Amino acid sequence: MKKIGLGLCSIFVIMWMAYAADPSPLQDFCVAVPDANAAVIVNGKICKNPNMVVADDFLEQGLNKAGNTSNPLGSFVTPVNVNQLPGLNTLGVSLARVDFAPYGINPPHTHPRATEAFLVVEGTLYVGFVTSNPADPAQKNKLFTKYLYPGDVFVFPQGLIHFQFNVGKTNAVAFASFGSQLPGTITIANAVFGSDPPINPDVLAKAFQLEKNIIDYLQAQFWWNIN
Known about the structure:
This protein is an alpha+beta fold. The protein has helices at residues 2-19, 188-193, 201-208, 212-219; strands spanning 75-80, 94-100, 105-110, 116-122, 125-130, 143-148, 153-156, 162-166, 172-178, 186-187. Helix 3 crosses helix 4 (212-219). Belongs to the germin family. One of its GO terms (cellular component) is apoplast. Oxalate binds at residues 106, 111, 116. Residues 1-20 form the signal peptide.
């Protein structure tokens, strides 16, 4: 009976983890206290005294202003998550503005804690995401892509590698919404080739089936972070 109970409990925990996202709030709001002022560290932010909460705690301004795209990637992300807008704490949502210069790219990356809904308001973008490893080793990861125009919305599933590329000769602007107050971003090239300290190049040479001198070259580059 104990084995059966543990088995059922394990299945329940695995199912709960598979569907878990940001926890549901247990109060109207929980305005975040700046990390430097927090007395303890928790998986989230400490709540401000509700009696001290003001309207400005729920306001972030400036998304009408374009981000600076004068970098090698030609794009810039302006986030509005709990770090910028304390009133988002425990509410399970956030958003971002993404600006693209002509032929600018938001390089392949993932959001480990959130699905992303991506709305184009200006320009033409080529976007896509790649599925996780298929169960059949003979199959390849599947790529889903679309060209997006103003008014189009595309969804990037949680945790999957995705990208956006401005294929037009003019600037492009999009807004992204996330199902997490702090979705996180893992930019693939930055994480693999630009970590500190660097990953052992022998590991990467074997993993990518490349000569070690190519790995050395890649690790010597400066990897821009726009997120």
